Amino acid sequence: MIMHIQKHTLPGVMPGTHHVLNSYHFGEAGRGPHVYLQAGLHADELPGVVLLHRLCRRLEALESEGCIRGQLTVVPMANPQGMTQHLQGQHSGRFDGVSAENFNRSYPDLSAAAAAQLDASADAEKVRGVLRQALAARPAGSSIEVLRHTLFDMALAADVVLDVHCDSEAVLHLYGNNRHQAAAGELAGFLQAGATLLCDEAGGMSFDDAVVQNWRRLEDRLGVTLDIPLALTLELRGVADIEDRLAARDEGALLAWLSWIGVLAGEKVAPPQAPQAATPLAGVEVIVAPHGGVVVYQGAPGQRLVAGTRIGYLLNPLDGSQTPLLSQHGGYFYARVANRLATAGAELAFIAGSGCWREGDLLSA
User: Is pLDDT of 2 > 80?
Assistant: First the structure.
């Protein structure tokens, strides 16, 4: 089988308008693991778009050589309507311009409808089919709802889901579920991820977490233990980290990982040790602006901090006074916000720690 391109037509917000996204399909259905990869769900996060288009070219060559042992679905640009949202030269691809909803939140909980069609004897393939049926039965009226249904249906068919994003300014890092600590550690090793952040539930039903939560909630409803698909978010550094050099390195890491999990033929190379051990998502310390002002950083992501470390200061542009920005707990400094003009309460920096000092929704807006 050679690569198949499927074009998905999505409605626009007004009559006469529409969007198209492409999904690229490799391998044979039912043969080996099925991996789903997407990028650009937040349409202003572009390093993953470059990476997955590059990966598609490589997978096409590998398929022609008979080297694909599983099935891959790749969506390099998952949000065409988000790509169109420009106002006065500025692109806004994180939130829907009509509803103001985050494109990476509010994926559906299908567990109640699916549980009504299942019993404790259901295997993974049966569960996938019933979840997709439950999704198809839900109404999808708005443009963003159709987008969510289109992407989520493809993800629900897979054994492994990788949603590629990027942060503002950051080292490469991963989000995943506690159930998948070992598998997340393997991918972190191949990619040399600076941080791996795990939880039972992140809140908000983001794309990868919603995949896991549907299965976890089905477990509770059916009273069984299920083989929950591996679903992870890969944060591919920062928004400006778009370079062929980086994309080539990440492509090599993903190909090694895909061989390791049995999707590609060839020698399996064991994953290297990840640079940092996984830590709880609830242990992320978020440094916020105590008042409005100009952010001056004196430390960069990639540093390990002790409690009390100063990472910069907030300049009051009216009187020139400086308010230090300090880490209370210490840990691995993995991300910071690029915007240097902060309003009071704005999140500025993120430090992965080993404690658990947050609860509720654990993801930023």
Answer: no
